[in-house]
Amino acid sequence: MLCNIANVSRSGYYKWLKNTYVVDTDYDDYILIKKISDKGKGKYGWRTIQMKLKSDMGVVMNHKKIQRIKIKYQLFTKIRKINPYKLIMKKTQEHRTFENVLNRNFKQKIPHRIFGTDITYLPFNRRMAYLSAVKDFASGEIVAWDVSQHLEMDMVFNTIKYMKNNKSILSLKNVLIHSDQGFHYTNPQYISRIKKLKMIQSMSRKGNCIDNAPTESFFGHLKDDVDYKECKTFQELKISITKYMDYYNNKRYQWNLKKMTPVQYRNYLLTNA
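User: That's the sequence. What structure does it adopt?
Assistant: Structure tokens below.
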């Protein structure tokens, strides 16, 4: 009688009734994946989710299952946009002071032998800040960095000082440091300080940002993960960057580092050298 009143077939009603009690076997796993995805502000891909499931929750999950559940529940990953600032940067030196000794030989197995350094823009609250960083190409670790409100040489000098004072680096002698041809790195004072540390200086070819790809990649990930544009003051921005550096070096597991953090991978390489 009710089927006739609702103008519904009896077979359709029984089919609906049967499906009502079907258990969603993916739901518990979806909750775990969503918890990690929300923590990463929707920016984690399946690799990061798989690593964090194992490291943070002790859960081993097949990558195909993670991908399927993400599609099923529409957990879409935010894709990093191309850095617009590097497209408008202008070189202030026409000559190339140092040869490209690195020559895109990014895959290194010995920590503290090949470094990359660069500067990136951090716009916030209608103002601009700048981040200088030095990355170890073997471990992916950020071994030195400094944030400034201006593009003066003090920023890179501070970065050199922090690199020199890094207790995990036993010696900087014969360590290669690669950069672009920006005015900071062609500056005679910078060259003099690098030479005093007995380091080897290398530079990208003019207009080839790919020659320093690992450092560029780090800046891209930082801008994905840090809400720097929401900072109201420079001090707030600096605190956010400081927290991220600790997270990146000590807590951010990376697929290409045998699913370790940069510091863990550095220690692993030193132990197995």
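The first strand starts at residue 114 and ends at 124.
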